[in-house]
From TrEMBL:
The lineage of its organism: Eukaryota, Metazoa, Spiralia, Lophotrochozoa, Mollusca. This is Tigger transposable element-derived protein 6-like protein. It comes from the Eukaryota. It comes from Plakobranchus ocellatus.
Amino acid sequence: MLIFLYACETWTLNTDIERRIRAMEMRCYRRLLGILYKDHITNEEVSRRIKNAIGPHVDLLTIVRQRKLKWYGHTTRSSGLAKIIMEATVNGGRRGRQKKRWEDNIRE
């Protein structure tokens, strides 16, 4: 899981990425418990079994959000290049709907 969380502070989370994170987490839990997909066990049952096996835990999406907030606080207090880039604006615009930005994730 640590490899998965590498540089997660810089990710822009949208619904598709959040869905993929949850799916990857369930795949890891199923593998830890030795559950095959052909066993037809629901995600709720897998979560219950993990909770019984290792106790209460924090899901990966919550960890990613916490790390993003921690990194945001760190960069806003610093005076380095990351802060300059984060506060920069680009002149002009692009066509179409606005993309979800990293900063929008922090506000949520």
